[in-house]
Amino acid sequence: MVAIAKKILTFEEFLNWDDGSGRSFELFQGVAMPLSEPTAKHEDVVDGLCRLLNNHCQGLNLPYVPRQSKQVRLNNVPGENESSRKADIVVFTKEEWQRMRQTSASAAAYIPQPLVIEVVSTNWRDDYRIKLNEYETLGILEYWIVDYAGLGGIQYIGSPKQPTVTINRLIDDEYQAVRYQGDVKIMSPLFPLLELTTLQIVAMTQE
């Protein structure tokens, strides 16, 4: 990635910053960094998952609000500038979403939220390694890695490679991973009544 903005930004300044290009960015140690544009299938999965979760939360009157493409402020190392990730899906608490609705600030995960979902693309190492460590350190209770095309390394999705959803649950400050493939029901601690399989997620790219 190539830095676009030379000025060092705080997280709040970054949320209001716009270079006019229409591109997506993340914040890396105070510097805005451009992101690669997602493929159509990647967007289909993100759209489909967010819509499914939103319907699930509304149907059961759950205290959560799923939203797409939201910035997540990461933990700052003392003395370093701020960083963020633009997550594919963030599930906010309804309380936090209502709080943000009362302000003029940009909607973002200023504090750790219950669930973050990343849909894997060609830079799969970021999702399985770097982001996992960042979200674990941040204290995100649940982190889904949705590898609908089976792109990840064998150590993460097994051999032969196939579409996989990995649910990382925070236990004693460390992620414990459970891997789901095929038509096995995905078990989410946050959404125990959710009926969803990896095959259903893959089908979102074919609708």
Automatic annotation (TrEMBL):
<protein>
    <recommendedName>
        <fullName>Putative restriction endonuclease domain-containing protein</fullName>
    </recommendedName>
</protein>
<dbReference type="InterPro" id="IPR011335">
    <property type="entry name" value="Restrct_endonuc-II-like"/>
</dbReference>
<feature type="domain" description="Putative restriction endonuclease">
    <location>
        <begin position="11"/>
        <end position="197"/>
    </location>
</feature>
<dbReference type="InterPro" id="IPR012296">
    <property type="entry name" value="Nuclease_put_TT1808"/>
</dbReference>
<dbReference type="Pfam" id="PF05685">
    <property type="entry name" value="Uma2"/>
</dbReference>
<dbReference type="InterPro" id="IPR008538">
    <property type="entry name" value="Uma2"/>
</dbReference>
